[in-house]
Amino acid sequence: MMGPSHALSGAAVWLSGSWALQHFYDYEQSPLALAVGTAVCAGGALLPDLDLSGKVTRNQGGATVARTFGVFSLFIAEVVEKVSLGVYYATKLSRDPKRSNGHRTLTHTIPFTVLVGWGTTTLCARYGKWAVIGILFFMIGLALRGLFDEWAERAGWVIVTLVSAGAASFTAANLPGDRGYPMIGLAVGVGCFVHIIGDMITRAGVPILWPIPIKRRMWTPISLPDSIALRAGGKTEIVVVRTALTVVSVLAAVGLVAPSVLQKFNLDL
Ligand SMILES: [Zn+2]
User: Fold this and answer.
1) By the number of CB atoms within 10 A of the CB, which of 20, 155, 156, 237 ranks highest?
2) Rounded to the nearest whole angstrom, what is the distance from the C-alpha of residue 95 to the centroid of ligand 1?
3) What tens digit of pLDDT does each residue of 170-213 get?
4) Residue 203 carries which DSSP code?
5) Is residue 269 part of a domain?
6) What range does the domain containing 251 cover?
7) Separation of 195 CA from ligand 1 center, angstroms?
8) How far apart are CA 68 and CA 74, in angstroms?
9) CA of 1 to the centre of ligand 1 (A)
10) Is residue 98, in this structure, part of any structural domain at all?
11) Which residues surround ligand 1, an ion (CB under 5 A)?
């Protein structure tokens, strides 16, 4: 799956999940909390591809997400890729093949999604608003890059960075104290998980069972059989999947916001 589809799937899952919580369990979120959760989940759905590095010194290549904050995020991607490769070699068994880069290894596993979600929640709980601002800044940047890819490409990373910083500080200033923080960690974790599933249905093998050894392999790539899998970047992904994800997101958003709007309208009458 390509960047924008990943980001859209994160947004769609968060919005429809929030709708289900509100509809079946009466769990209501403020419009701001909804917007933050959606943005963070969309950004989280790009996070695993931060292991696709480019050429830092020449400021070239890398996944779209690795270019969000220009050469800075390209450098982070370089580190993530090398660490992932290190973990691959540290845990590989005799039948795992040799690799020269760490793309689609550690960051595409369940333990990683749990660790990132838990780590985010812990940071927010321990360091409060400053951690929240930093995390929101980073995640909103990724979300912008993914959801508005053409705009982000034209605007360049400096503008994307400034917009993310603005949105993050606005959010942190308006988010109520205790309720929003665990939600941010959950949104990052859910986003990462949605990314892994997205890669799996587009023929890309993902080591989702790691660290469970199977037949002397620790990093068994799991994917759908070619006959039913989507082709990454193919017409089906770009047209059908993205349209469906957009429709789901819009319907869920309308379903979430409409009741309170209608209520206000009635009260005013
Ligand atoms: Zn991926």
Assistant:
1) 237
2) 23
3) 988 887 765 557 889 999 999 999 999 999 887 778 998 888 88
4) T
5) no
6) 3-260
7) 6
8) 8
9) 7
10) yes
11) 48-49, 199
Q: How many residues does the chain have?
A: 269
CB contact at 8 A, 139 and 44: yes
Q: Rounded distance, CA 197 to CA 52, Å? A: 18
**Span between the terminal Cα atoms of the chain, in Å:** 48
Determine the distance separating the centroid of ligand 1 and the alpha carbon of 108, expressed in angstroms.
7
Residue, of 241 and 177, whose pLDDT is higher: 241
| Cα distance between residue 70 and residue 161, in whole Å | 9
Q: How far apart are CA 223 and CA 184, in angstroms?
A: 29
Residue 54 DSSP SS3: strand
pLDDT digits (tens, 9 = 90+) for 10-61: 999 999 999 999 889 988 888 888 999 999 999 999 999 999 887 777 667 7
Quick one: pLDDT at residue 214?
Answer: 87
Residue whose C-alpha is closest to residue 9's, from 157, 162, 264, 230: 230
Q: How far is the CA of 189 from the centre of ligand 1 (A)?
A: 14
Please check whether residue 6 is in contact with residue 45, taking contact to mean a CB–CB distance below 8 angstroms.
Answer: yes
Whether 101 maps to a domain, the answer reads: yes
Burial class (CB in 10 A: 0-12, 13-18, 19+), 163: middle
Domain count, the chain: 1
